[in-house]
Design brief:
This protein is 40% helix and 17% strand. By secondary structure, the chain is an alpha/beta fold. The protein folds into four domains: 131 residues, Rossmann fold; 186 residues, Glycogen Phosphorylase B (Rossmann fold), CATH 3.40.50; 110 residues, 2-Layer Sandwich (Phosphorylase Kinase, domain 1); 172 residues, Orthogonal Bundle (Transferase(Phosphotransferase), domain 1).
C-alpha cells in the first residue's frame, strides 16, 4: 500500500509506503489542491496500482471515499451568479464533476444516504456506482470505563464546577459546524442559566473571530477554547450536552461518538448522522431551515429537562451495538470487490455516456428512452412556447408530464438584459421539489426527470410528477369567501389553519434561501379532510406546486421576499379577510410579537402592500368587471395592535 499526502502528523504506519508531497502554501485551498494533484500524477505515473483511492475529489480516481458534502448542491448556491466565474468555483466544480458526473467511472464509498441523494440530484450519478457504508465508530473512541471518575477529573482540569452545565462543541471547521450559532444560543439563555453554563470548544481552527463574537455577546467568560485533543472519549464523559448546529455536514461522526458515550446531542438535521439521534432517542434534532430562536429554545429546554438522563442511558444502550464498529471492514470489502470488477473490465473499457440523463422511478421504468418520453401523449393541460404539460395514466395511476423544448435565444437575452437567469428547462422544478422535500414542505412528488445536453436555447428536458388527487387550488377553494362570510366555527378554525400553513411555508422557504416567484393561492393545492361532514385540519394537506421559476440562494434577498408575500396578499384581497387574519399571518411569518413587527418591520410590510396593490390595480384595469370590491390593505398601522391583542 502506498499513501500520497501533502502532510503527515504522527507516527508512520507500519507496512505502508508513505509519500509526503509538500506543496507551497501560497494561494487558496483550491490552488494547493491542484498543486498536490499535479505532483501526485507525476509520482504515480510510473507505478501500476490495482486501484487509486482518494479522500479528496479529483480526476482519475478508481474509488472516492465520500466524506465530503456536495459542493455544487450545498456550497455554491450560497454565493451570487458571478461566483461561478471565479477560479475557485471552476476548480472545485471541475474536480467534483470528475468524480460524480455520468461520464466518470469512479466508484464512490458513500457514508450518507442523504448526501448521496444530493449528488444524484445535481450530477445524475448512476445508482450502481455508489457503495453505501454503514455508520461507524473507531474502536479507540469507545466510551471510557469508570465514567464518573473520569467525568470529575476532566471537569476539574477544565475548571468546571460539578453543579455547572458543560456544553461541548467538537470539530474542526468552526464556521461550517455552526460555532457562531452555538455562541448566540449561549448568550440568549436566561440569565440564571447563563451564569451556570460553560461552553468548551474542541478542534483546530482560528479561534480569534469567535472569541471576539463571544466578547460582543457578553459570554466570553463562559467560553473556553482548548484546541485539538486526542482525549475525546474522556471529554465526552465530562460533558452534559453536545451542541452541533452545523450549516453543512456529510456525516458528523462526533454525533455517534457522543451518543455512544452517553452524552445527549442537540444538532441540525443537515448532518448525515442526525437520524441516529432520533433513532436512539438521545437528544434533539433541529429541522431545516435553521431557526436561531428554535435553537435558543431547545438549548434552554435541554438544560432544564429531566430527559437528559434518559437520553444518556438510551445513547449508551445504542452505542453498545457491534454493528457501529464494522465500517472499516465494509470499506475494505467494497474496495476489493471494485478492484476485482476493474480487472475483469479492463479488456472492454467503458465509453463515455453521451445519452441524455434520465431518471425514472421504478413504476415508470417501462416508459422508454428520453425521446419516447418527450413525445408521450395524453390529456393536454397547458401549452406555451417551448413548454407543454400533459396528464397521462399508467397502471391505474395518473401523472403529469411537463416537457421543455427550449425558449430560444431571444428569451434568454431578454432575461439576461434584466439581470435575471432564464428558465431553460425542468431543472428548476427538479431542484425546487427536492429542496422543499428536505424542508418538510408538501410539494410535487417526482416520478421522472430527464435532460439532454446542447444549446441552452434549444435544450430539451422533462419532469414527471404524481397527480395530487382529490385536490383543488387554494384560489378555487377560497373563492366562495368573496360573497359569503364564514360563520361556522369549524370553517373559521380551518381558515386560521390555512393562514398558519401559508405563513409557515413562506417563512421556512425564505429562511432556507429560496423564493417561489409565483407565490399565489392558485399555486397551492389543497386536499381537504373531513370528519362528520365538517372540514378539519388534521387530515388536510396543503402542497406547493408550479416550481419552474423557483430560485435557490444562500439567503433570500428582501425584494424577492416582498414579491412572494405580496403574491399571497394580492391573491387574497377579495376574500374578506379581517385585520386579525392578516396580522396573524404577519406574526407567524416574522416569528415575532406583533408590537415588534409593527415597530421594526414597517418598511417591509409597506413594500408588500404597495406591490400587491399595484398587481391588484393592474388586474382591475385588464378585467374591470372581475373585482367589484375595494382592495384590502395590510394592517400595518401601530394602532392596529390594540384591535388584535391576543392574536
Amino acid at each position: 500500500m502506498h499513501v500520497y499526502t501533502s502532510e503527515w502528523q504522527g507516527d508512520k504506519p507500519h507496512g505502508v509506503s508513505l509519500n509526503v508531497l509538500p506543496a507551497s502554501r501560497i494561494g487558496g485551498n483550491h490552488v494547493r489542491d491542484r498543486r498536490f494533484f499535479n505532483q501526485m500524477q507525476k509520482a504515480t505515473a510510473p507505478q501500476r496500482f490495482d486501484a487509486i483511492v482518494g479522500f479528496n475529489k479529483m480526476p482519475g480516481l478508481d474509488v472516492y471515499y465520500g466524506a465530503d458534502f456536495c459542493y455544487l448542491g450545498r456550497t455554491a448556491p450560497q454565493y451570487g451568479p458571478l461566483y461561478r466565474l471565479t477560479p475557485r468555483y471552476h476548480h472545485l466544480y471541475t474536480y467534483e464533476k470528475a468524480v460524480f458526473s455520468r461520464d466518470s467511472e469512479t466508484q464512490i464509498l458513500s457514508l450518507s444516504q442523504r448526501e448521496k441523494t444530493v449528488y444524484q440530484q445535481y450530477y445524475g450519478t448512476q445508482e450502481e456506482r455508489f457503495h453505501l457504508l454503514p455508520p461507524t465508530l473507531d474502536l479507540d473512541r469507545r466510551p471510557v470505563a469508570h465514567r464518573e471518575s473520569v467525568r470529575h477529573k476532566i471537569r476539574d482540569t477544565l475548571g468546571v464546577s460539578p453543579s455547572d452545565a458543560l456544553l461541548l462543541f467538537v470539530g474542526s471547521g468552526f464556521k461550517t459546524k455552526g460555532l457562531d450559532r452555538a455562541l448566540i444560543a449561549l448568550a440568549h439563555l436566561p440569565e440564571s442559566l447563563t451564569r451556570t453554563t460553560r461552553l468548551v470548544v474542541i478542534g483546530q481552527d482560528q479561534a480569534s473571530p469567535y472569541l471576539r463574537l463571544a466578547q460582543k455577546l457578553g459570554v466570553a467568560e463562559q467560553v473556553q477554547f482548548v484546541g485539538g485533543r486526542t482525549d475525546i472519549p474522556e471529554l465526552l464523559a465530562a460533558g452534559d450536552l453536545l451542541v452541533h448546529p452545523a450549516y453543512m455536514e456529510n456525516t458528523g461522526t462526533i454525533l455517534l461518538e457522543a451518543i455512544a458515550a452517553g452524552l445527549p446531542v442537540l444538532a441540525t438535521d443537515v448532518c448525515g448522522y442526525a437520524g441516529h439521534i432520533a433513532i436512539a432517542d438521545a437528544g434533539k434534532v433541529l429541522p431545516s431551515p435553521f431557526d436561531q430562536d428554535q435553537l435558543d429554545f431547545e438549548l434552554a429546554s435541554a438544560l432544564l429537562t429531566e430527559d437528559r438522563q434518559r437520553w444518556s442511558q438510551n445513547g449508551l444502550t445504542y452505542g453498545a451495538q457491534t454493528s457501529l464498529y464494522q465500517m472499516p471492514k465494509s470499506a475494505a470489502d467494497a474496495i476489493e470487490t471494485i478492484v476485482g470488477q476493474k480487472a475483469l473490465s479492463r479488456q472492454t473499457p467503458a465509453r463515455p455516456s453521451t445519452s441524455p440523463w434520465v431518471f425514472l422511478r421504478k413504476d415508470l421504468e417501462s416508459l422508454g428512452q428520453f425521446e419516447d418520453i418527450m413525445s408521450l401523449g395524453g390529456e393536454v393541460y397547458r401549452e406555451a412556447p417551448g413548454r407543454r404539460t400533459v396528464r397521462f395514466e399508467r397502471n391505474n395511476q395518473r401523472y403529469f408530464l411537463k416537457t421543455h423544448t427550449g425558449v430560444g435565444w431571444q428569451e434568454i437575452i431578454k432575461n439576461l438584459s434584466y439581470l435575471r437567469l432564464p428558465v431553460i428547462g425542468a431543472m428548476n422544478e427538479w431542484h425546487g421539489a427536492h429542496h422543499l422535500q428536505r424542508l418538510g414542505i408538501d410539494t410535487l412528488s417526482i416520478a421522472g426527470y430527464g435532460t439532454a445536453s446542447g444549446s441552452p436555447a434549444r435544450r430539451q428536458s422533462f419532469i414527471i410528477t404524481d397527480e395530487i388527487t382529490d385536490a383543488q387550488s387554494l384560489e378555487e377553494f377560497c373563492s366562495p369567501w368573496k360573497s359569503r362570510p364564514l360563520k361556522d366555527s369549524s370553517e373559521i378554525r380551518f381558515k386560521r389553519w390555512l393562514i398558519t400553513q401559508l405563513a409557515t411555508i413562506a417563512r421556512r422557504l425564505h429562511q432556507s434561501g429560496a423564493n417561489h416567484r409565483d407565490f399565489y393561492l392558485v399555486h397551492f393545492l389543497l386536499q381537504p379532510g373531513y370528519e362528520n361532514e365538517k372540514i378539519i385540519p388534521q387530515s388536510s394537506r396543503l402542497a406547493v406546486i408550479d416550481l419552474h421559476r423557483m430560485q435557490l440562494r444562500g439567503s433570500t434577498p428582501r425584494r424577492w421576499r416582498i414579491k412572494d408575500v405580496a403574491g399571497l396578499h394580492y391573491s387574497s384581497m377579495d376574500l374578506k379577510l379581517t385585520d386579525r387574519d392578516r396580522l396573524r399571518f404577519m406574526k407567524i411569518y416574522s416569528s415575532a410579537p406583533l408590537r415588534d413587527i409593527l415597530a421594526n418591520e414597517q418598511d417591509f410590510w409597506q413594500g408588500v402592500d404597495r406591490r400587491a396593490q399595484r398587481l391588484y390595480q393592474a388586474e382591475k384595469r385588464r378585467s374591470p368587471q372581475r373585482r367589484p370590491v375595494p382592495a384590502q390593505s395590510m394592517p400595518i398601522a401601530k394602532a392596529s395592535v390594540e384591535r388584535v391583542r391576543g392574536t
